[in-house]
Structure to design on (183 residues):
């Protein structure tokens, strides 16, 4: 594993133009090998990295890095939720609940910011919606999903309408509203 990490570090230094992409790939490698904390640290470092004048392509890559770092925050939140639910059965742990809420806030702020950028963000929107559902923020979910489905600046995405339909069905929206989403 150490040899792979050394190799990735050398790759980053070879081409400054590809630093962000190589770093993102390195974090994927760390993630696949179960090193979530190291992957998250890697993405946090890369997120603040700058070289020369920031180009549009570099800005897009930084947004991609931010999106994946937020996804790792979501994974941390899921782990905390799982451990909290098993502990909650035995007793209440207020510190664990506060810690989980802090990770939730950090992740949702970043995901909300990412979802303002046009693109197909399906895996990220699903994570964001799951966290909002956990805290029963149904109005926020409706707003986010409507924006994702109907914002003209986003590319056409049939999945966005499916997510909105499923959410409306879950909250028992009127038939008329459900049919409008399917059109």
């Amino acid at each position: 594993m150490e040899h792979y990490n050394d190799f990735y570090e050398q790759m980053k230094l070879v081409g400054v133009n590809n630093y962000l992409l190589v770093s993102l790939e390195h974090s994927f490698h760390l993630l696949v090998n179960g090193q979530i904390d190291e992957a998250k640290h890697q993405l946090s470092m890369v997120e603040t990295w700058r070289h020369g004048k920031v180009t549009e392509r570099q800005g897009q890559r930084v947004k991609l890095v931010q999106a994946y770092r937020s996804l790792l925050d979501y994974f941390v939140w899921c782990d905390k939720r799982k451990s909290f639910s098993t502990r909650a059965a035995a007793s209440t742990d207020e510190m664990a609940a506060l810690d989980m809420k802090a990770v939730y806030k950090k992740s949702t702020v970043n995901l909300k910011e990412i979802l303002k950028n046009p693109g197909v963000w399906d895996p990220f929107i699903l994570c964001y919606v799951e966290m909002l559902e956990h805290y029963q923020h149904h109005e926020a979910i409706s707003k986010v999903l409507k924006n994702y489905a109907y914002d003209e600046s986003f590319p056409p995405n049939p999945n966005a309408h499916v997510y909105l339909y499923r959410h409306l069905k879950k909250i028992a929206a009127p038939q008329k509203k459900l049919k409008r989403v399917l059109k």
